[in-house]
Design a protein that fits this description.
The protein has two domains: 61 residues, no CATH class; 66 residues, no CATH class. Strand 1 and strand 2 form a beta hairpin. It contains two helices and nine strands, in the order ββββααβββββ. The strands form two sheets. A five-stranded mixed β-sheet has the order 5-6-7-8-9. The longest helix has 23 residues. The protein is rod-shaped and about 100 Å long. The protein is of the alpha+beta class and 159 residues long. The structure holds zinc ion (ZN).
Length: 159
């Protein structure tokens, strides 16, 4: 399929503002291949190019059908930036929680963590590498989740 290139002096179907209908027009002037000024071949008036009514009506119908599924669909996926921001908020909340659990506690309230130890939820532990933390939950007889300043870790117990 070849698309006919529009040229000045050529013909195009446009809406005539005088005749008030789509008619053949002679192109008087173009900008970037788009007619800007046309001459109606029916009434002879020169006027700004206006797209045919028929074409504009089709556009409207297409826009309507194209936009409705978008409106129904779920909200746009978060951007990486928004995700990072949400994670940062979560991270701040997590660290605050950790601080409130640890704050004001005496050193002797912390149990030195060793994998041989036996821990319960909310127990305060001191890890040789990760520092102070609290037991978030006992996962099973041999696993606990401990929250440290820089994040939670699953550690062994009773081994
Ligand atoms: Zn006309």
């Amino acid at each position: 399929m070849t698309s006919r290139k529009l040229t000045a002096g050529g013909e195009v179907v446009a809406y005539c503002t005088k005749c008030r209908m789509d008619l053949n027009h002679r192109i008087v002037a173009l900008v970037d291949g788009i007619p800007v000024k046309v001459e109606c071949e029916s009434c002879g008036s020169h006027h700004k190019y206006r797209r045919p009514m028929e074409e504009r009506a089709t556009d409207k119908r297409e826009r309507k059908t194209a936009s409705s599924p978008r409106e129904r669909s779920a909200p746009a996926p978060r951007t990486a930036g928004a995700r990072a921001a949400a994670e940062a908020v979560q991270e701040t909340a997590r660290e605050k929680e950790w601080q409130s659990r640890i704050a004001g506690k005496m050193a002797d309230e912390f149990v030195k963590y060793t994998p041989k130890g036996s821990f319960e939820a909310d127990a305060l532990v001191h890890h040789f590498k990760f520092g102070d933390g609290y037991v978030v939950r006992v996962i099973d007889a041999n696993k606990i989740e401990v929250m440290f300043r820089d994040g939670p870790r699953v550690l062994a117990q009773r081994i």
